[in-house]
Amino acid sequence: MYSPTPDDWHEANRARWDERVAIHAASDYYDLEAFLAGKDALRGFELAEVGDVTGRTLLHLQCHIGLDTLSWVRNGAAQVVGLDFSEPAVETARGLARSLGLSPERAAFVASDVYDAAQAVPDSAYDIVYTGLGALNWLPDVGRWAEVAASLVAPGGFLYLAEFHPVTDCLDDETGSRITYDYFSRDPWVDDSPGTYADFGAATVHNRSVEWQHPVGEVVSALAAAGLRIEFLHEHEATLFARYPALVRHPDGYYRFPADRPRIPMMYSVRASRPVSG
What Gene Ontology terms describe what this protein does at the molecular function level (predicted)? Predict the structure, then answer.
């Protein structure tokens, strides 16, 4: 039976993220010292698939503390805007931009719900609309997300999404080898785990979270229905963290199953463009 979405899902998720901003900023996981010294926060496949951003405008939806957003500036973007629903995250991102000597005209950050992005960002359209890993699971309605995101893509521009593959949430946590959970479930996943992925032992108070699983077909179809043309859908055999104990960290920093294990997709990426009006 379908489980209804809790009425306080938005408030619970925002309280959780607000509390974790300071923990993340101080963590080795984000390593702000290395970032400020020049370390690029973007993944290699993202840089390759997005391509040259020199001179282009870029909007980053659900940007958290802005490391990916600011990395696009380092890779040549003329102007970036990061949007997140957490005020502390946005303030941290603004502080990082100031530390890098970037003006608000070059790197701006806006506090807003992603569904309200079209009314919150300074421009009506961007050459690139980017959404990074670990974002869509916090949204109950991926169709509405696609409509908002697509509306902000300028003619001739594109949306790029990199995300964890939802099939990884269907396998058992102990071995990652048995199908345990329903891939097509529409039920919200309510959790109360303390800590955070950046510091599992951190003492936290606001631990309730509400998340959703969105099958890849649903995401791609939503983008197409919103008027974008799908250029590619790529599935990646690696992931960023030890999702299952059997995963092995490789020299490139990614985690993969051992060579004697069958592979599954653990991340995916989509690029979808808006045609130039004829």
Answer: 2-polyprenyl-6-hydroxyphenol methylase activity; 3-demethylubiquinol 3-O-methyltransferase activity
Q: Is residue 3 part of a domain?
A: no
Task: Note the pTM of the prediction, 2 decimals.
Answer: 0.96
Inside any domain, residue 236: yes
Domain region containing 47: 9-273
Report residue 173 as tokens.
């946590």
The token duo for 66 is 């802005």
Report strand pairing: 267-273 vs 229-236: antiparallel
CATH number at residue 85: 3.40.50.150
Domain count along the chain:
1
C-alpha span between 210 and 67 (Å, rounded):
24
Rounded to a whole number of angstroms, the CA Rg of the chain reads 18
For 20, other C-beta atoms within 10 Å of its C-beta total 24
Nearest to 226 by CA among 192, 173, 270: 270
Rounded alpha-carbon distances, angstroms, from residue 162 to 85, 104, 129, 238, 246: 19, 26, 12, 13, 23
The answer to whether 110 touches 82, Cβ cutoff 8 Å, is: yes
Alpha-carbon span 178 to 151, nearest angstrom: 40
* Residue-wise pLDDT tens digits, 95-110: 999 999 999 999 999 9
- pLDDT (tens digit per residue) in 175-189: 999 999 999 999 999
Cα torsion at 46, 54, 89, 142 (round to 10°)? Answer: -50
